[in-house]
Structure formats: C-alpha cells, structure tokens
C-alpha cells in the first residue's frame, strides 16, 4: 500500500480522545501518516460512541456524507472503531458503508484490519480481554502540538452494570493499568509540554492494582487514593484531574488525598442520575439519595473549595412526576456547579432495554430535561457568584473563541475563566482576579 494516510474523527466522550491518541501512536509506529484533512486521507477511522442514541445518529449522518466521498474518490477505506454496539455493526454491514470494525480491545490490530480490508478480505483476531494499552506512549503530532491538557485512561471497561448503560457490553470488564506505567506516561506527557492530565475511568474510585514487586505499600495493593498520592508527588508541576467518580465507591481516603495536594484539582464529577430511590434501584445504581447527600456533605467538609458536577438522566423507565420532583429537590439541596443532562434512550442489549418498559413519553422526557437544565443554569450562576472578587489560579489553555484578545483557561474547580491577554503564553499558570460572571464563565483580569 502506497498511500498510508489516515484521519481519525471522534464521537462521544473524553475516553475517546485518549483512545484516539493510542490509535495514533499504534499507526504512526507502523508507518502510517496522520492526515490533517479528512478529504485527503485514504483511511478514515470513526471513533464511535454508543452510550446515547444521539451519538449513534451523528455517526449515521457522518457515514451518509462519506458515501459521496467514497463514490468520488474510490480508494478510501472507512473503519468504525471503539464503542459500537452489535446492532450498529449489523446496520452498517447491511448497508455496505463500512470496510472494517475494530472494537476497543483490538486497537493493536488496526494495521492488520487495514491491510486485510485493502486486500478485500476480512481479518479475524483473537481479542485480548484484559487489554489496558499501558505500554503505549503518546506521540506528539501537528494536531496536538499546542495542547497542554491530556487525557489518560487508568481503568478500562466497567463492572457496575447500571441497567441503562451499554458500556460494560462495548468496553468489557473493568481492569486497571499498572501504576508504574501511569507515572511513566504522566512524566512523558510533562516532558512533551503537557501541564495537566485527567485520569480517566468509568469509575476511577474502583482503580485497584495488585501485584508482586510493587513500588509502594507492603500489601502490594495500590488503590485510587494511593495512585493519586503517588502521582501528586511524582509530577508536582502538573495539575491532576480525574473523572468519573462513582458515588458508590468514593471514599474519605480519596477526599483526604485530594485536600492534601495542591496539584490535585478541586473538582469532583459525581453522576447522580436521579434523586429518587425508586429510580436509582431500577437503574441498579448501588447508592441511595441519602448516601449520595451524605457523600456531598463529606466532600464539602474535607475539601470546602471543591466544585461538584453531575450527570442526570430524565425519563428513565417508570419515572413519574414525584420521582422527577425528587431529582429537582436533590439539585436544590446540592446546587451543583455544573452538570450534564440527558433524556433516557434505551440501548440495545442492556437490562433496561430487555426487561423494563420505556414508558415515559418523549414529550415528558424532554419537558423534564428542560426543567432540570433551566434549574442547573440558575444554580451555576449562584455558584459562580462565590468566585466574584477572588484571585484564582488559572492554567492558560488557549485563545478565547469569542474574543481573540482574551485568554481562556480553567481554575482548579474546572470552571472556565477568560481574561484580556497580556504577553502571557499557553501553558502558563497565572493569577486572575474575577471581576464578572455568567452562568458558564468567570471573567477577570490578570494580576501580577
Ligand atoms: N461511568 C459514569 C457514566 C458513563 S456514561 C457513571 O458512573 O455514571 C455518561 C453518562 O451518560 C451517564 O452518566 C448517563 O447520565 C448518560 N447515559 C448513559 N446511558 C444512557 C442512556 N441509555 N440514555 C441516556 N443517557 C445515558
Ligand atoms: Fe455505565 Fe454505570 Fe459503568 S453508567 S460506565 S455501567 S458505572
């Protein structure tokens, strides 16, 4: 094959950004060349997400667009990679729109999938179920040259089996990367200009590494609190973030480590999904409203400056008006800094899809969703006021999209801060006095 140019497009979450970096590294090491432009590439990889129906619909639309490119330019190969369901694979195979599929455990085999596909054959591989990719290092490219914030998966897959969620089916059982490789990769990122790393996992608190020859701890066990503690010491000049925390597994030990280290950011993403115990049970979330509220209290006691964000879903099976009001009252009690809100869409293969009735009409799902979005906007504005007049540490990430004369960055609470440029650089950690707010942005001025 002469033209080995490839292009990756991402759908969905932060985990896909980190997976695309792994795929980049694998392909670059195998002699492929990263293309800046989809139209110029001969191999197009779509890094998919099937967590919600919307992401799948976007993928379908994209493939419709690519149909024309494929007709115009005969020599292109399209692969769907990552988090896709069996149903979506069947759908695209039937339509003959995709040349090959690579699941999230088989990235190492991508060069083979491409070669076989070019030869017009199907490649069969023996998927390694416990793949972590922990030995694969990030490679700097033109596309990520200016980035100073990276994502790094520390666990892959999930064992929780929330009844609405497709992740355990698409990404497999949970496994943790070895702590030594995580430290090594963070150091590598730092030497490549990165100033911040976000440790990723569907449930970072269940990170666990057990082995002989451990680098810490007599018991030969490293849990998430140990990992954070180790990293904070090993990469003191890098900011550390993590996501997602599961209310069922988050411990005081982790909270104490966060409060102990300045370079661990003071933000916790703590999806609640619903404020109703009846719905939490139907979702197989293994906590109650009371336990969740207690955890929020603990977070605020141990790390008073900590921001808290959420994921909430409206219109899950059997959610009635009373359940919805319980979600609203929980939000009023907590007043989150921000959140991600969705209406429920059944995902094929999940317990809810097979066994529970999707019985909340779409207009009611949407109305409830709008109500919680409006409420969250009020709460975000309320929380932003707490920052007015304060001087905060901000890591500059780039130019503000709205105003090229302004820098854009984030404070420790993961809130966006914009302020007029004054001969500073991307990657600088600076002090900014907050002078104005909106519900989504802190506005300020740089102070020396
Ligand atoms: N690991 C995370 C969730 C990952 S999925 C956790 O512990 O909660 C990200 C979010 O997508 C979920 O929190 C949920 O709010 C939403 N989501 C997942 N499945 C969904 C579905 N079938 N319909 C609508 N939203 C869904
Ligand atoms: Fe999904 Fe629940 Fe795991 S939402 S990713 S099964 S924690």
Question: Could you characterize the architecture of this molecule?
Answer:
Helices cover 35% and strands 23% of the residues. The chain has 13 helices and 20 strands. The chain has a five-stranded parallel β-sheet with strand order 2-1-3-4-5, sandwiched between helices. Strands 16-17-18-20-19 form a five-stranded mixed beta barrel. Strands 6-9-12 form a three-stranded parallel β-sheet. S-adenosyl-L-homocysteine (SAH) binds at residues 51-52, 164-165, 202-203, 244, 246, 271, 273, 311, 313, 342, 344-345, 347. FE3-S4 cluster binds next to helix 5.
Low-confidence stretches: none
Report the total helices.
13
What's the number of extended β-strand segments? 20
Q: Name the beta content range.
A: 15-25%
| Biggest sheet, spatial arrangement of strands | 2-1-3-4-5
The CATH architecture classification of the largest domain is Alpha-Beta Horseshoe
CATH class of the largest domain: Alpha Beta
Mean pLDDT: 93
Overall tally of domains? 3
The value of Rg in angstroms is 22 Å
Largest sheet: 5 strands, parallel
- Find the structural class using helix and strand composition: alpha/beta
CATH topology (fold) name of the largest domain: pyruvate-formate lyase- activating enzyme
Q: Give the N-to-C terminal Cα separation.
A: 56 Å
Helicity range = 25-40%
| CATH homologous superfamily placement of the largest domain | tm_1862 like domain
Gross morphology is globular
> What ligand molecules are bound, each kind once?
S-adenosyl-L-homocysteine, FE3-S4 cluster
